Amino acid sequence: MQRKTSHISAFITLVIRECKRMVSRPLYFFGMIFVPLFCFLFFPSLMKQGLPKNIPIGLVDEDNSSLSRRIGRNLDAMELTQIVHQYESVSKAREAIQKNEIYGFMYLPVNLSKDVKAQRQPKISFYTNNAYIVPGSLLFKDMKRMSELTAAAVNRELMYARGASENKVLATLQPIVIESYALGNPWLNYSIYLTNILLPGLLGLMIFMMTVYAIGVEIKDNTAREWLSIGNHSVTLALTGKLFPHTIVFFLMGAIYNIYLYGILNYPINSGIFPMLLATFFFILASQAFGIFMITVMPSLRMGLSFASLWGMISFSISGFSFPAIAMYAPLQAVGYLFPLRHYYLIYVSQALNGYPLIYAWKYYIFLLLFILFPFLTQGRLKKALIYFKYIP
Amino acid sequence: MLRRKIHSGFLGVFHIWKLEMKKIFRDEGIILFFIIVPLAYPILYTSLYNPEVLRELPVAVVDNSKSALSREYIRKVDATPDVSVQSVSVDMPAAKRLMMEEKVYGIIHIPSDFSTNIMQAEKQAIVSVFIDMGSLLYYKAIMVANTDVSLQMNREIKIQRKSSTEREEQVYAYPIEYEHINIFNSASGFASFLIPAVLILILHQTLLLGVGLLAGTEREQSRFNDMIALHKHHRGTLRLILGKGLAYFMIYLFNTAYVLFLVPAFFNLPQLGHTFDILLFLIPFLLATVFFSMTLSTLVQNRETCIVLFVFSSVPLLFISGISWPSTGIPPFWESVSYLFPSTFGINGYVRLSSMGAQLHQVKFEFIGLYLQLVFYFITTFIVYRREIFISQLHKKHHWSRLRKIREKANRTFAKKPL
Q1: Considering only CA atoms, which of B286, B247, B252 is closest in space to residue B17?
Q2: Does domain B57-170 fall into CATH 1.10.3720.10?
């Protein structure tokens, strides 16, 4: 009979064993360090403009008067847009959109200037392409403002000429005006909006996969029994010892992106960094726990990893940061709570973006911790899988 | 002589094709990536975005004017499809609390001088909207609703004023009218925008995973960790590549028909394209992806590692394609990197052909790009397969010579010691 070692020394043996395994296989380096670091650098670098500037648009000027030329110049001077080409007809401009040369265009009809003078109320049109929804929506904003200004410009000049005050002119032309306050992200910065969730999302994906891999490969290589016996035949101890080094590495990665986003790139962090670091830590624990659950439910490495990639990829959509969860079908909204990224996203909005008191977000921290229950509730099944499951390729 | 060579070449390709097909359909793991994921994933993913637009976003209102005009404004905002007025709060702190509790996603504040300003026409009436920026669609919904209502009321106010004393100055409120036309994806649907790109990516990534899994399996089963097991028909690298490539290509023709034609039809996504043009475009896309995958598959050492290696790349590949963040905003370095992947050309070409009704000559850049990738990745596949075969032969030779040495040694020993 082998004498049982104390839990502490078993834990240390397990940690050392796992560290050796992590160093001996390049896949661990790839999945735990290379991929996260690459993504942390990639996304902010890809969207470093924040808002895309100089979106190419076209102009169809059939009038070719001093008025129409002035409209064209004003449009070109707008911050987001840049007129790259004049087209002779609407159909030519439409073709240019299909070739991806422009994302929209403005159409100034023939006799525009004459009709204005004759008070016949001519109509100008702007076209945007929403198959590319981001540039399409941004153009909409600029072109709408431009059209408003253009429409009112003639009247404004008339009234100024009669000696009306600026307030009077504005109140006459536009009695009600909207002032918008985009809280937390007044620049409508696209990178702030996406990167804050894409980075933890990718980290979460890699945590799912590396957790499943680390356990599944023991089953595959027939080392699971040995691993379990080092852990005094306790699944909890074996898992804790094995995944502890992972937690450290992943938290290091988490801290790196937090420091990069909030410390170096100065993305909004209205709550201070501590609530986000805590959220990151809980998110990592939740993802690891759910990873254990995955390989428990599907003890074959291939199926476990497929589960992990499915869950990890769906996270990006179902967390609701691109397409809001409240717009999704009700059952899918409910399923969303089974994704750690959903809770992380809600914490991020409440804490980092809006800086609300912690009391409004605490429940999401608890939800993240509840994920740890998954492997506890299913540890009997995992133990059986570790002892009896045979790897089938 | 030449004819016989060509004949046996074809037979070889066919033989390899048959072997590969058998391997694919006998392996549950491959069936998962080649059949089940392409079948199920598009449905799952599209269902998430299928509601297309955000409707009736809950907002709070703080009405300090409490006038007929402010009530009209609130009623009209509530009537828009974009937002729904959840509550009329007493003051800003109360409304802010609703926002913190995630009961509303925006606050519309109407000032006390709202009605008087409109009546007196000396100052503008300013409506302030405060928006939760957790999603850009919140911003869009609240802005669209308020802008539309304000423009509509402005027009009505001006018409009413016309009949009063200021008639002279109001001869025409808008000397120029304007209209906005959404060409393509006219409802600004989220699924219509994102799903076509995702569908292409699903084909691209499952192909990459499946081919990677096949290569990893081969290595695992081989005695020397080789990717290519040697036998008669494996002598010709060309035959090997063409035979395998043909098998993947054929399976993916079926997948493509389902993923890119049936799924969009099922979910009513915009399909303005000419089927024949789209098919012509997809052939180089599939072939380029096949050879791209075959080249990368040499990196796969074990059966399952391909999942860890390749899955994460879906997210960077989607963003680098320029479908979300526009390609004009992508730094030149990343833009050139994006040209390495068939998904970039595939996404941009397919979206424009299918969602925007472009013709093949309008996606010339992507079409030629895919053919260049096809040639490039064919050559790289040839090189890496050549190398793998060479390594295989080396292992085999080494193995045989070792066996021979052992036999000779044994012979010598036995020769010395007569029985």
Answers
A1: B247
A2: no
